[in-house]
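User: Some background: our group keeps a shared notebook of sequences we're curious about, and every so often someone picks one and asks for a predicted structure to add to the entry. Today it's my turn. The entry only has the sequence so far, pasted here. Could you supply the structure so I can complete it?
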Amino acid sequence: MREAVRSDPAEALDLLREMHPGYEVTLLGDGPLGDYCYPPEDTSYATVLAGAELFCDQRLVRHLPSELPDRLLQAGAGRRIIMHGMHSVSDSLSFAVWEDGELVRSLCLSPDGGIAENIGEPYEFELPYWAGEHPVKPMFSEDPYPLPFHPLELGELALRAFFGFVLEGRIEPDDIDPLDVHLHAFRVADPTGREQAERAARMERLVRMMRPPRRYRMTPDGTLRELGDDEI
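Assistant: Of course. Here's the predicted structure to add to the notebook entry:
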C-alpha cells in the first residue's frame, strides 16, 4: 500500500459481488483508509491494488476469526489472507492469517471475554506482550486487569506488521499514512432483509444482557470512587 493509487471502482464492485453473492451492491463514493476503517452497517469500503485487495466491512470481522466463511477463503485461494478487527468500546482484538488456505495464526481476546481463540505460534511482535512486558494498570477497579496486556495496544502493532500503518499511537518513520490510501464506499445489503432482522434481534439480546451502568467520582487523592445509587 506504500505507493497505492486510486483503483477502478468497477474492479472493487465485481469483487464485492463475488464476496456477497445475491446482495445489492451500490457505489456510494470514496474516501481515505484513515477515515474508512470502521464502516457503518450494510456498508463496505474496498480497493484493488497491485497484488493486494483491501476490504473494510463489519461482516468480515468474526468473533472466532478461524470461522471466516469458506467463500472468502476461496476468493483468496493461493494467497495470504489477513483478517483484523478492533473495537474500542469492548477493548477487543481479533486477527487471523491464512497462507495458501491454511490457518497459521488466529487470536481473539477482550477483557470481558478473555481469550476466545489462540491458534498457532505468536508472531514476533506479539512476544513481549505475552511475556508480560506491557501490563495494564487498572483505572476503574482495584482488581488486576484480566489480560497480560491491552488488546488495542497489541492490535495497533498488528496493523503495522500486517498492513504497514497504525490508527493511534506513535507513528514510525516508515509507517504508511492511511490518509493516502483511497477506498471506494459501497452499500452492500441483503435484499431479503433477513440479515438486518438478525442483526436487530442480536442487538436486542445484548441490551437485555447489559448490567446497570457504573459511575465514578475523582477523589482528592486522584483515585476513582464508585458512586452508590443515592449519590447520583
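Suggested note for the entry: The chain has one domain: 9-231. The mean pLDDT is 89.
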